[in-house]
UniProtKB/TrEMBL annotation:
PANTHER family: ADENOSINE 5'-MONOPHOSPHORAMIDASE HNT1 (PTHR46648:SF1), HIT FAMILY PROTEIN 1 (PTHR46648). A motif (Histidine triad motif) lies at residues 98-102. InterPro entries: HINT (IPR039384), Histidine_triad_CS (IPR019808), Histidine_triad_HIT (IPR001310), HIT-like (IPR011146), HIT-like_sf (IPR036265). Coiled coil: none annotated. Residues 5-115 form the HIT domain. It holds the Pfam family HIT. This is HIT family protein. Gene3D superfamilies: HIT-like (3.30.428.10).
Length: 141
């Protein structure tokens, strides 16, 4: 895509701190470095978000996640965990509209990164849960 910053990084038009590349993906350090080693893994094929993936692309991209995760673990033995995030669409905090997976090493509870799922005090009834499951199940192809 013409004005996509990640496409420009993949094509070496913009410099990056590359950590891995093959024919399907490109992985590089996120300039924000939420934590040391914060890495982005992007498909070389321009797709806006997960909704543009087909099964083949998903298989290729997500198969590379453990490879990069294991490299982070070896590079930073002090790492105590890893968050893997994939934000899709603006409401879900996607800010660059070329699909990407964040691999965010975790070093302690005080490493300035957290995820909160909010208040779960209002739970759905069994009937509501079944209706939700059925609505999704009908659409899985």
């Amino acid at each position: 895509m013409e004005n996509c910053i990640f496409c420009k990084i993949i094509n070496q038009e913009i410099p990056s701190y590359k950590v891995y590349e093959d024919d399907k993906v490109y992985a590089f350090l996120d300039l924000s470095q939420v934590t040391k080693g914060h890495t982005l893994l992007v498909p070389k094929q321009h797709v806006a978000d997960i909704f543009d993936y087909d099964e083949s692309l998903a298989s290729e991209v997500f198969a590379r996640v453990p490879k990069v995760a294991k490299a982070l673990e070896k590079a930073f033995p002090e790492m105590e965990g890893l968050n893997i995030l994939n934000n899709n669409k603006e409401l879900a905090y996607q800010s660059v509209f070329h699909s990407h997976v964040h691999l965010i090493p975790r070093y302690s509870k005080k490493d300035d990164f957290s995820i909160h799922f909010g208040d779960h005090s209002e739970k759905q009834s069994k009937e509501e849960m079944q209706a939700i499951a059925e609505a999704i199940k009908e659409q899985v192809k």
